[in-house]
Amino acid sequence: MEPPVTYYDKAEYIETTVIQTECVVRGDLRRTGGGHAVVVAIGRYCMLGQRSVIRPPYKTYKGIFSYYPMKIGDHVVIGEDTIVEAATIGNYVHIGKNCVIGRFAVIKDCCRILDNTVIPPNSVVPSFSVYGGNPDELPECTQEVYEAQTKEFYYEKFLPKVTPS
């Protein structure tokens, strides 16, 4: 679904990323002690949908509760009412409406996450993938599938001729 045309006053906006109304970006949450000063890094030409929540992932390590950096790449669309706690979102990613992206998830480049999808915490979504629904775990990586298929061909079905001696 294409977003409608919106006219804006150039003096009121930075022309690289669009953060729509009621979107919450929790850039104020950062690690205790030393560490990265930038907690949420957002690339160019991104669009963060209405009522979406972008907050850095967190965990307790050695008894200390801490937030970790989140990086969102260039040309990323995050749909309305979506909650994102990923560690990394690559370039050219489209995340649909009403999605939940779990803590420390990694979404690689050129992916599409369909509407109403839940990506479990600590998951890795490989490049050029399309995911939808609420999986307990993500299917195996396309790269790993192709690698296994080609190795099977080379080692089991592409054999040298046996010459009689």
From TrEMBL:
<keyword id="KW-0206">Cytoskeleton</keyword>
<keyword id="KW-0963">Cytoplasm</keyword>
<dbReference type="InterPro" id="IPR047125">
    <property type="entry name" value="DCTN5"/>
</dbReference>
<protein>
    <recommendedName>
        <fullName>Dynactin subunit 5</fullName>
    </recommendedName>
</protein>
<dbReference type="GO" id="GO:0005869">
    <property type="term" value="C:dynactin complex"/>
</dbReference>
<comment type="similarity">
    <text>Belongs to the dynactin subunits 5/6 family. Dynactin subunit 5 subfamily.</text>
</comment>
<dbReference type="Pfam" id="PF21711">
    <property type="entry name" value="DCTN5"/>
</dbReference>
<dbReference type="InterPro" id="IPR011004">
    <property type="entry name" value="Trimer_LpxA-like_sf"/>
</dbReference>
